[in-house]
Amino acid sequence: MNSPHNAQEATSQPIRFYHRGEVVAVEGVRTTRSVLDWLREDAHCTGTKEGCNEGDCGACTVVLGELDAEGALQLHSVNACIQFLPTLDGKALFTVEDLQPQCAGACAAQSPGDGDALHPVQQAMVECHGSQCGFCTPGFVMSLWSSYEAHQQAGTRPSRQQLADDLSGNLCRCTGYRPILDAGQRMFDLPAVRLDRAAVVQALQGLRRGQGFAYAAPQALPEGQRLDWFHAPTTLDALVALREARPQARLLAGSTDIGLWVNKQFRDVGELIYLGNVAELRCIEQRGDALYIGAGASLEDAWRAIVRRAPTLADVWLRFASPPIRHAGTMGGNVANGSPIGDAPPILMALDAEIELRRGARVRRMPLADFYLDYMKNALEPGEFVQGVAVPLSAFARQVRGYKISKRFDCDISALCAGLAIALDGDTVASVRLAYGGMAATVKRAAQAEAALLGQPWTQATVRAAQAALALDFKPLSDMRASAAFRLQVAQNLLQRLWLETRASDPLPASATSVFSVLPHATA
Ligand SMILES: Cc1cc2nc3c(=O)[nH]c(=O)nc-3n(C[C@H](O)[C@H](O)[C@H](O)COP(=O)(O)OP(=O)(O)OC[C@H]3O[C@@H](n4cnc5c(N)ncnc54)[C@H](O)[C@@H]3O)c2cc1C
Ligand code: FES
Ligand code: FES
């Protein structure tokens, strides 16, 4: 039987998803058409707003529903501006229109006969004066709805700090946030209105595709028309075959990097192979003596698993972008993209992570520290892809810290990010890993500073020696995020902070800002 992913033989299938209570089938749109543009321009659902068009402001926040391996409905917020429409195939799309009174979609099934009543999220926003100019409001409402549904499902209530974390990807220039946080608490006091999950599950079951999904659309280019393919295999075997057969195609995971190439740089990304439907790639499990994180695991799930074993890393988790970005973006994408200011690589390097690469039947592993060759260059060969990362469990026995330095506290790219790990034998440094992002063309370990610490007593004098060695390890650049001098000074200061937090006498607490709000959830 022909696989639908053999591009020569495949026929294009319509993009099918559940939207406002019915299954929608879309054809003829380009493969990189954003969900936001489709909503506003094609479906004329203009409740969802466009602010930045790059995943930063949250005005375009929508909620996606999909079935997990057990067939249960999972909801998560994403930024519609950087999601490509074909990635919706088989999923449910919820927008602010789904919450309006008497809507034809999900909420008609939620609250039969409830006339003109607003959804509790909306009612709370009204009561608490959570909206002024209103431009950001649909995005906030959808982030709040996502939180509302999650907590109603779990029978819990979020703390104010948890709500603040949930809303960290939504910007408002008017309200000052307090009224919105008030609304986030108030919505749980109002009579509950729940999504009819059974109806959505039934619809999504009907959208399942046994053999994966292939979609093609003509793309107008100056030199003429070209047919662009979007392939979405559902098994690892199908992905491996497709990747080997089409090494020139671009791998697409969460599109939180690629979406910006399209929207901001107008790059032609050509043929796409989407990884998001390959269940094997999403796995997070203990394999032997390592924590294995599949490349397609969402950043949110991957960080949760890491923080469960190293709670001191909670701050980096919560300050890595925002919930919508972490729901869409993947650990594999962060590692493969290889930005020198990516936040996962320094942490993973400090944890001695290995990266697993796959091409055909060949699987090879290497230390993540060896994967990056030069600025945005890595060891991937044509036809190869990142299959996962493996973190030895022994690495969690060290004292691990992740320090993210950025201009804005929430949802900002790092000027510098440090992953630091140390194990002491009595007073002596028995092992040490110092990995920094933002200090060189790639994320890399500070070999000379590590050498200055290893085998030495863990004292202020030793720290001073390692700080001096850091200046030999790195010659950072000045750019819009920080000057070279600032970067070096901060990198050195973070060593001091590591010492203050891990010294034998009178250690300071590891001051992870939001750690107490997330720990109860860090159980996956
Ligand atoms: C608003 C915003 C905030 C952000 N904040 C942060 C932040 O705080 N810290 C940070 O580090 N990053 C941040 N990012 C960047 C981005 O979220 C991450 O790099 C993300 O992990 C990319 O993953 P993705 O799945 O979205 O990758 P995609 O965008 O789908 O792909 C990125 C690249 O990786 C390749 N790729 C993806 N998966 C694989 C694979 N399995 N094998 C081989 N190649 C693959 C793609 O071909 C592409 O070249 C932010 C982005 C936005 C838009
Ligand atoms: S429009 Fe700003 S995040 Fe999408
Ligand atoms: S109410 Fe005006 S931007 Fe939020």
From TrEMBL:
Gene3D superfamilies: 3.10.20.30, 3.30.465.10, [2Fe-2S]-binding domain, CO dehydrogenase flavoprotein, C-terminal domain, Uridine Diphospho-n-acetylenolpyruvylglucosamine Reductase, domain 2. Keywords: FAD, Flavoprotein, Iron, Metal-binding, Oxidoreductase. Residues 222-396 form the FAD-binding PCMH-type domain. Signal peptide: none annotated. NCBIfam families: xanthine_xdhA. This is Xanthine dehydrogenase small subunit.
